[in-house]
Amino acid sequence: MSFQKLDDLCRRLEALEHALAILGADEATHMAVGGGEKRAEAMAALSGMYHRHATAPEIADWIEAAETEALNEDQTAALREFRRHHTNLTCLPADFVERQTAARLRCEQLWRGLRARNDWTSFQPALEGVVTLVREEAAMRADVLGLSPYDALMEQYDPGNRAADITPVFAELKAFLKDFAPQALEVQAGRLAKRPLKPLSGSYSIEKQQALGLAMMEAVGFDLTRGSLSVSHHPFCGGVPSDVRITTRYRTTEFLSALMGILHETGHALYEQNLPQDWSHWPLGKARGMAIHESQSLFVEKQIGRNPAFWRWALPVVDTHLDENWSLDDIQPHVHHVARGLIRVDADEVTYPLHVILRYELEQELVAGRLEVADLPEAWDAHMRDYLGLSTIDNPADGPMQDVHWPGGAFGYFPSYTLGAMMAAQQWAALVRDHPDTDEAIAKGDFSTANEWRRDRIWSQGSRWSTPALMERATGEKLDASHFIAHLQKRYGG
Amino acid sequence: MSFQKLDDLCRRLEALEHALAILGADEATHMAVGGGEKRAEAMAALSGMYHRHATAPEIADWIEAAETEALNEDQTAALREFRRHHTNLTCLPADFVERQTAARLRCEQLWRGLRARNDWTSFQPALEGVVTLVREEAAMRADVLGLSPYDALMEQYDPGNRAADITPVFAELKAFLKDFAPQALEVQAGRLAKRPLKPLSGSYSIEKQQALGLAMMEAVGFDLTRGSLSVSHHPFCGGVPSDVRITTRYRTTEFLSALMGILHETGHALYEQNLPQDWSHWPLGKARGMAIHESQSLFVEKQIGRNPAFWRWALPVVDTHLDENWSLDDIQPHVHHVARGLIRVDADEVTYPLHVILRYELEQELVAGRLEVADLPEAWDAHMRDYLGLSTIDNPADGPMQDVHWPGGAFGYFPSYTLGAMMAAQQWAALVRDHPDTDEAIAKGDFSTANEWRRDRIWSQGSRWSTPALMERATGEKLDASHFIAHLQKRYGG
Ligand SMILES: [Zn+2]
Ligand SMILES: [Zn+2]
C-alpha cells in the first residue's frame, strides 16, 4: 500500500529532523566552541540525506497511487499536506538549489562583516546575486503552484496567504499607524511628565532570573517534562515537540527583557508541545506556518504578557524571586514603552508593523523587478521618513543591511511578523468574546481557559487548514485589522 | 575511483555517528525526561540508516577495486581498517542480528528489574537465550575471521587480542594477586592503626567541585574549547573528538569520588581529542579499541591521579577551590584505599583484576559450551571464594547478575578493563624509563612530557596497528604483567 510507504518515509524523515533540530539547539547552547566545524559538516550531510530521502524519484508515484487508496479522514489530510510539502521541495532543479545555496551562504557571510562596517557598496553586488536568483526561484515556483511570483514565495512560509488579501489589511493598518504612532508617543510623554519612570536597573543574578523564568513558563502552560530553558546568544525556540528547547539571554542589571523574551519563546513552545502527537511524523502534524507560529508567541508575549491583568498576578511572583517590590504603576510604563527607532527587532508593538510593511512593500518591488538593489538605500530611506520620520540614507547598516533575511534569500517571510501580531489580537478578541472573564482569570494566574481555547482551535489542528482558513475557523472571521487597531488604541491611546 | 567512493561513504557515516554520539550524550545530560520515547525512535532509525549505508551491497566491490588502486600509505592503512570494519559489520546475517538485538534488549530490561529483586530463577532463561545466540555469533564470526570463537568475539573490541596471549599473562597476575591482596590489606591495617583515617566528610557545593574538576581537566591537558563537563547519573566520556562530552556525578558530602571520576573520563577524553583529525571519518582515525582506551583513562586516573607526586601539586589546587587544608598523609590513605568486596565497579586497583579474571575465565567456558548458565551461580561463588575469600551463593544479584555486559550480549569485553590497567602501568614504566624526572614534573603540575609521550605513541596512531602491536611499538615490549605487578608492589606493598 502506497500510503504506508509514505508513512514509513515520514518516520525516517522525522528521525533526521529530530537529529537536525537537537544538533541545532545544542550548537547554540551546549556545544564546545571548537566543535563548530565538524558540527556544520555533520548537519550539512544530514540535510543532504534528508533531501535525498524526501525527493527520491519513486515518491511521486507513491503519492499518485495513495490518492486512489481507501484512506480515512486523517490520512487524506496527511496525504494532501504531504503532496504540498513534496511539491514545494521538488519544484526547483537540484543544480539551481546548489547555486542558490552557495550565493546565499556567501552573501550572509559577507553581510556579517560588511554590516559592521556600514559598507553598502561592497555588499550590493552580493545582494544583487541573491535577488536575481530569488526572481528565478519565484518564477519557477509560480509556474508549478499557479500563483503570482511573490505569492509563490509566501506560500512556503504561510500556505494560503496571498498579497491580494494582505495588502488591503496592511494598508489600513499603515494608514492608522502613521497617525497613531506619534499620538502614542505624545500620550506616553504626558504620562511620564506626571510620573517619572522608575529605572529598571538593579542587580539580578542569572540563577534567580532563570528560576523566575521557569516559574513563569510553567504557570502559563509550558510542560517542563517535555522541554527546557537554556542560555544562548540569540533567544530561540528549537528542539522537537517532545523536547522543546527555548533559550534566552540575561542581563544582570535588569530582568524585564529576559523575562519578556522567555514569554515570547514560551508562546512558540506551547504551540509545538501541543501539536497532535500521533501525526508528529507527517507534515500534517507540524505547525501551520510562520505567521500562525508568531501569533502564538505574540499571544503570550503581547496579549497576555503585556496585559495589566497579567501583571497583577505576575508582580508578586517577580518580587518573590528577585526580592523586589514593584507596583503596577511602576512596571507598566516599561512593559508598554513606545519608541521610534531604526531597528525592527528593537521596536515595540506600535511601531513594529511599520518596519514590516516597509519591507513587505520593498521586497514585492524587488521580486517583481520594479525595484533594483542599487536603488534600495534611497527607497528604504524614503519609506522610513514617510512612516517613522527617520532617515537611513547615511546609514545603510540600519537600513537595507539591517536584517539577515534578504542576504539569506528569505523573501516573503517578513509579513509573517505583523500578520502574527494581528492574528494574536484577533484570537484574543475572539477568546474574550467567548470568555469575558479572561482578564480576571489571568489576574489570578489561571491560564487554563486561554490555553484550552488555543489548544482546540489552533494547536491541535496542526497543518490541517491553510493559514487564512485556520484563522477564520478559529476566530469566526477573516483576518481583520480592526482587532489589532482596537488593541493598540486601548493600550496606547490614552 | 573506488577509494574515493569509500571516502565519501565514510563522510556520510561520520555524520550519522556524530548525530548518534551527540544525541546519546544529550540524552544523559540535557534531554527533557519526557523526550525519551521520541529520542529512542530517532536513534533507532538513525542506527538503521547507518547500518544500511555501511552494509550496502556495492561496498564489497568498492573495497576489492580499491585494493588494486594506487594508494598512499595512509590510504592503504585506511582501506585495511575499512575492510576489517566492514567484515565485522557484515559477517552476521541480518535476521540473526535482529533476533539477537531483540533477545539482548529483553534480557537487559528483565535484568534491571530482577537484579533489584535478587531473582536468579526468573533471570536464568533470558540469559540462556542470550548465551545460545552468543555461541552462534561466535561460531559465525570465527568462521569468517579464521579465529577461535572466543577470540572472534574479543576481536570486535580489541583487534589482535588473543586468549593464547592473554591467558598466561592473566595467570601470572592472578597468582600474584591471590597472595598480594591480603598482604596489601594487612599493610593498610597496620598503617591505619598508627594513623587513624581522617574522614573525607565535609560540605562541598556542586559549583565548587565542578570548578575544581574543570581546573584539573585543563591542567592535565583537556582542551576546553573542544569538550565540556556535565552531570549525569552514570559518568561517561561521549560526544565526538571535536566536542568531547565527559560527565560525572557529585556528592556534596565528599569530593574525592567525583574528582577521581573526572580524571578517569579525562583520560578517555585526551585520547579522543588527540586522534588524527584528518582521518576522523575513517575507521583508521578512530581509537584503537577498548583495552587501549581503558589504558588511557587508567593512565590518568591511576598512574597519574593516584600518584603521590600528583597530589603534591593537586592538594593546593583542591584547597584553593574547596577551602580545605588536607595534608598528603591525610589524603593518601583515601587515594590508595584497598578493600575486598563483591562489586567490580567499586573495587580498587589491587582487587579489580581478580573480578575481571573471574569473568574472563567463566565467559570463555560459557562461549565454549563447557559451562551452562544454570551452573553459573555455583561457578561464580567458587571463584569468588578462591580469589577474594567471599561467597555469593545466596546473593546472585552481586554474583553473576552483577553486570549489564552479559545480559547485553557483550562477551569478550571484560578482559579490556584489566588489560587496560596493565597497559597503563607498562606505558608509565616506559615513560619513566625515557624520562626519569616524570614524578618531579607532575609534582609541579607539568604534564606536558607525559602527554607528548602518549600523543606520539598512542593518540596519533589511531587504528593504524593491532592492539598488541600498538603496545609493543609504544613501550618496546609485548604486554608483560611485571610492570603492573611492580606498580602494585610499590604502591601497596608496604
Ligand atoms: Zn517569535
Ligand atoms: Zn573507563
TrEMBL record, chains A, B:
It comes from Aquamicrobium ahrensii. Broad specificity carboxypetidase that releases amino acids sequentially from the C-terminus, including neutral, aromatic, polar and basic residues. It catalyses: Release of a C-terminal amino acid with broad specificity, except for -Pro. Transmembrane segments: none annotated. This is Metal-dependent carboxypeptidase. Pfam families: Peptidase_M32. The keyword Metal-binding applies. Its EC number is 3.4.17.19. Keywords: Carboxypeptidase, Hydrolase, Metal-binding, Metalloprotease, Protease. Belongs to the peptidase M32 family. InterPro entries: Peptidase_M32_Taq. CDD domains: M32_Taq. One of its GO terms (molecular function) is carboxypeptidase activity.
